Amino acid sequence: MGWYRWNGADLELSLRVQPRAPKDTFDGPDPGGEHYRVRIKAPPVDGKGNEALRRFVAKSFGVAPSRIEIIGGEHARYKRLRIQEPRSFPIPIDPA
């Protein structure tokens, strides 16, 4: 898959984030398979969207929010995240 890759024990995701959604959810890969769609309730204002994304991804993958790092696209809809040693897999990913 083009939307995730392993970097040692860390998982890197390429996401397309939709803010102001009715609920926080993983929505499936984009048609081209380059990004995984994520919907977040928070607006993209004053870092609220990024913080909500970090909390949602952390809870979903069973890690603390401090173990989620935005490594690209902090001010864009398309983002790259690094999850340090994820414990659970809410979306279809082959564990390392």
TrEMBL record:
Domain of life, source organism: Bacteria
Entries under SMART domains matching the protein: DUF167 (SM01152)
Annotated InterPro entries: DUF167 (IPR003746), YggU-like_sf (IPR036591)
Residues annotated as signal peptide: none
One Pfam family of this chain: DUF167
HAMAP family named in the record: UPF0235 (MF_00634)
NCBIfam families in UniProt: DUF167 family protein (TIGR00251)
Family in the record: Belongs to the UPF0235 family.
Descriptive protein name: UPF0235 protein ACFSJC_19040
Organism: Thiorhodococcus fuscus
